[in-house]
Amino acid sequence: MVAPRTRLPAPRRRPVAVLLRTLGPLALLGGWALASATGALTQDVLASPAQVADAVGELWGNGQLADALTVSLTRAGLGLLFGAGVGLVLGVVTGFFRLGEELLDSAVQVLRTVPFLALVPLFMVWFGITETAKIALIGVATSFPMYVSTSGGVRNTDRKLIEAMRSFGLGRWAIVRTVVLPGALPSLLSGLRLSMTLSVIALIAAEEINSTEGIGYLMAQAQNFSRTDILAVCILIYGLLGLTADGVVRLLERFLMPWRKATQGAGR
């Protein structure tokens, strides 16, 4: 009998991997520039990359871009902090405690099916045209992905391990802190990734509520004056915010779960 030889692919070098990841965005940028240069894409439809770069310099030079970024990031950050925190607590309560699941899960599932955009008129009635309405909308949007991921991760924790910890005299909250949350960490990070991405989407909707500051306000002003270059800048900023949020969670995964990186690398 001859033992079969298993050939594992060699891990790709980091510079090569980064280069391959940038080929897609570079191809899109090149196609955009080519379409603008040949006249297939006119300025009234979409400004060229050079014009968008000039708009970035203009907005940054007069301070509008820095101020708008500060306001929008504050809104998204506060809403994410509130929403992800509430989703985490509710997920642990319903996933670990039977009474919590019986009392809360059905109500949360009903609320989860309501599109968060449908709450915009109600929040305007409750909070008026204030920052509270915008932050609350982002918080609601980001709470449910965190809740679903946390609840599922907590339920999938090894029950034998929990019983073993109980036999050593650990209380419920000590078990949650030392066993359940570390065991559910992959699900928690997945939920955080979804919540952070959704915070950017909810930010776009929130800044449509008669904003006088932020990236959404810049977009509204650019729309009034048909400035497609500034509109493109704002759209690209929203995209970069989402990409940055995803990158932050990836870094957390590498830091908190270094074994996962090794396992994924061996399977590719």
Describe this entry's structure for a reader:
The chain is mainly alpha-helical and 268 residues long. The protein is 78% helix and 0% strand. α3 packs across α9 (185-206), α3 (64-96) crosses α10 (215-224) and α6 runs antiparallel to α9 (185-206). The longest helix is centred in the first third of the chain and has 33 residues, at 64-96. The model has no long low-confidence stretch (mean pLDDT 83).
Overall average pLDDT: 83
Report how far the terminal alpha carbons are from each other: 28 Å
Which geometry do the CA atoms define? flat
Helix content: over 70%
The major beta sheet can be summarized as: none
Secondary-structure blueprint:
Elements: H1 14-38, H2 49-61, H3 64-96, H4 98-112, H5 120-127, H6 131-155, H7 159-167, H8 172-183, H9 185-206, H10 215-224, H11 228-256, H12 258-266
